From TrEMBL:
This is 5-oxoprolinase subunit A. The gene is pxpA. HAMAP family: PxpA (MF_00691). Its EC number is 3.5.2.9. Belongs to the LamB/PxpA family. Coiled coil: none annotated. InterPro entries: Glyco_hydro/deAcase_b/a-brl, LamB/YcsF/PxpA-like. It comes from Paenibacillus contaminans. Signal peptide: none annotated.
Length: 258
């Protein structure tokens, strides 16, 4: 099924340095992507990094979003924690609030929220957790766009509350037949062939399907594509994705812009 829109958002997780520890190539990636998900200090990031990343994104016209995670610096927010919906709500409001204040102080406006890592994956399947995160975004600012895994509980929760949602697909992750991401604990969780990944992104945007690890096509709504910024080839990969999209006549544009 061909999708009517030939525009797509490219988002990247950023601001994930902490203190003296530097991670990613944010400044260069901001010239490629249309949306930046900025860590808010729980899984990564610190106030100075948050401010610097916000300023760099705003100066390039890149949409700024909050990237709240679990309070797990050592595990980079990728380890599941037994948090209640009430805890998830409070920590999400806390992190959105922190980044939103920095964005306002720099003369911008926070545009979206995308949970990070384990919190994102947990909310994709746990309806109560998804509801708590969506409610945190809505009560902080009902104009925020909620990013979530395509077909997930988080997208459904956002829709129920009346939030604008953006269904997300991943350029470098493999998928299961039910539309879920292959767990990072598995060796086949990541796509290592950049040409294959780029072509898959174009197919996702044009046809709305992805080939699963089980060899079947899975229908997915693609409104924003995540490009991870913490790998050694992240910048070259991001540029390749954008080049292939534009060569296919697909315009890269932030969700809700234009």
């Amino acid at each position: 099924m061909e999708q009517a829109s030939l525009t797509i958002d490219l988002n990247c997780d950023m601001g994930e340095s902490f203190g003296v520890y530097e991670l990613g190539n944010d400044a260069a990636l901001l010239d490629v992507v249309s949306s930046a998900n900025i860590a808010c200090g729980f899984h990564a990031g610190d106030p100075l990094t948050m401010r610097r990343t916000v300023r760099e994104a705003l100066s390039r016209g890149v949409a700024v979003g909050a990237h709240p995670g679990l309070p797990d610096l050592a595990g980079f927010g990728r380890r599941e924690m037994a948090v209640s919906p009430q805890e998830a709500y409070a920590m999400t409001v806390y992190q959105i609030g922190a980044l939103s204040a920095i964005v306002r102080a720099e003369g911008g406006r926070l545009g979206h929220v995308k949970p990070h890592g384990a919190l994102y994956n947990m909310a994709a399947k746990d309806a109560a957790l998804a509801e708590a995160i969506a409610e945190a975004a809505y009560k902080t600012d009902p104009a925020l766009v909620l990013f979530g895994l395509a077909g997930s509980e988080l997208i459904r929760a956002g829709m129920r509350l009346g939030l604008r949602t953006a269904s997300e697909v991943f350029a470098d992750r493999t998928y299961q037949a039910d539309g879920s991401l292959t767990p990072r604990s598995r060796q086949d969780a990541l796509l290592h062939d950049e040409d294959e990944a780029a072509e898959r992104v174009v197919r996702l945007v044009r046809a709305g399907v992805v080939r699963s690890q089980q060899g079947v096509d899975v229908p997915l709504t693609a409104e924003t594509v995540c490009i991870h910024g913490d790998g050694p080839q992240a910048l070259a990969f991001a540029r390749l994705i954008r080049e292939r999209l534009e060569a296919a006549g697909i315009q890269v544009k932030a969700v809700g812009h234009g």
